Amino acid sequence: MAFKSLLLDIDGVICRDRLLMEHVKDNCVKYVAAKLPHCKDPRETNRVMYLAYGHTARGLSKTFQVDTSDFNEKVYDKHLMEHLASVIYGTEFQQEAKEIHELTEKDWKVTLFTNSPVEWAVPIAHAISHDIYVDCVGHDVSTSLLKPETARYNQFPKHATNVFIDDSLKNLGTAKFLPNWHCVYFNEGPKEERLWCPQIDSIWEIGLYLNSVDKWIDDNHHL
Q1: Is the pTM of this model over 0.90?
Q2: For the chain, how are helix, strand and coil distributed in percent, rounded to 5?
């Protein structure tokens, strides 16, 4: 039997609650303001750091040489974690969690593949199923491997069929030419024209796409 691995991004794929995502962003902006007290526009600085480095803390460390070792503690604070709990144990999230858990019963190893810390990733994984794995960044973001760095992707078994679903084309781009990787763009907005990979806009569609991958595996296994 082929080893089948499903890698799911968290923010923007598993967690899409608008208010929760704004809460995360607001905490990041407050962190930037605290670390750069003379910054005139911490919101824009946060956006640029995230786009350029894949993580606000990495960007602050590399660009401004500030100590970001307390990033997780400050950003993922008590109030944010309480907000997270209210979302992931709510009816809407649990309905989607059931669909994801069912994939594990079809021999898919499901891993939350994220640049978020363990404080964020583990509660989400447990809210879905104890059969869900987590691949997240270490405590020190300045030295951790981050998506879209190739070394982060190379830790997954090369013989596996890896289906990678992310809402960032930049993150997906790293996996585009890796052997046995299937990239899927999660996009709830208008469909991108002439995109190089498939697009989906719901958790429900993941199951449909994996059915096509199962068929591809079966066809190639019998070649």
Answers
A1: yes
A2: 50, 15, 35
CB 55 within 8 A of CB 115: yes
Tokens of 80: 């944010």
Cβ–Cβ < 8 Å for 37, 60: no
At 81, which helix (H) or strand (E)?
helix 78-88
> C-alpha distances in angstroms, 146 versus 51, 87, 114, 203?
13, 26, 8, 24
pLDDT band at 223 (very low <50, low <70, confident <90, very high): very low
Integer Cα distance of 103 and 204 in angstroms? 11
Kindly tell me if the per-residue pLDDT of 76 is higher than 60.
yes
Exposed/middle/buried for 54, CB within 10 Å: 0-12, 13-18, 19+?
buried
Point out the least confidently predicted range of 25-39, 75-89, 136-150, 154-168: 136-150
